[in-house]
What does this fold into?
Amino acid sequence: MRKPLFGPREIITPRPSLTVPIPQGMGRNEFFNSPANLENLANENGLLRTPQDWLMFRKIVGHSSLFDTSVMLDTSKRILDPLGRPVRRDQLSGEEKQVWGQMSQILFDYMVEKFPDPEQHLLLCGEASLDATWPLGKPGVPSIRMIHNHFMAFPMAQLKAAPLTDPNNPNLTDSGHNTLFLKHLAEVYRGFFALLDFHILEPLADDDGSLSVTGFPKGLPSWQIKGGAEMLKSQQFWDEYELVLRGFLDFYRTFFGLVSTGVLQVPHDSYFPNFIEKALLESEIFVAAAQMLRDKVIADPLFANQIRWRPAYKQILYRDETGRLIVTISQNSVGNAITELLGIVVNRVEDPKAFAAVEPSLIARLLEARERLIDANLGTPIATAHWGDGTV
It folds into this structure.
């Protein structure tokens, strides 16, 4: 085991003023999910669009000033109901999933090339999903209700110099304390994942994947990618990356199904029914935890309102300071950002002057990364008022 860890950090990232007008009487998150806003996002910050409607865009309210972009499946013109849009990889077609993997590999490879020293830069690629029980206007609910993948890089020096933040911040994805089931079920959770058939993903010991600068993630199952970044070019890796998600979905649906009904049963849409029967429904700890939560839901209306009955998660791939590429997954909670899974609280402050100072280099990297996708014949560049489409 490594030396004692330090603690979660809080950094400040400047952002420009938001110019898009929000109709009077409409909540910010409600507007962000509208087709009108998503069209504005593409027109103002779009970088590239694929034939499958994957949209690469600049994060105007970003986490990092060094490198920060997202790839989102923009179905806003095809599917008007925000609750009917894909929010997870298991809801994608085979073609959509294949292109998603190719884009993710190319963008992560770009970050590795530009920031090769793991002691100098933290790299993060992460997908956050919502569930249909989150109301659109609830504060803290992520602003775009479609599957999207984040790509960002942080200077390690910035993280080390940042002040410690409150470790009890409810938005920190500390799985030992702030999520609903891992507080009581860490051993069962890990045991269930141990039954899955991994070859490229190698399980890590408890908290061995934690960053030394923050001590996060905590209490989560983590896997190291054997073979490093080169394995991201392998379809086998993306199959195993989805295997992690499928295991999470089975665990989540089984647990909250038991909390909801009190009936021991395998969910009808499960991927691993035999493992559920053996490792979960026959576990006294699993059943007791569900009953405890069920009793609390019945008695406490405020607590009951916080339950996410449908699967919500964050799954990330990151490079730690030793150069290992690590995969982990966590239950999602209202308000927390993708970086908080790694113990990084980002205070995104409106500061047009400070943002203007970092914007040119940020955009230059985004356009350079976009060229990699164009060269791979994965999409068509988008010209905006801030940048062209790359043609002469």
Remarks:
- The longest helix spans residues 235-261.
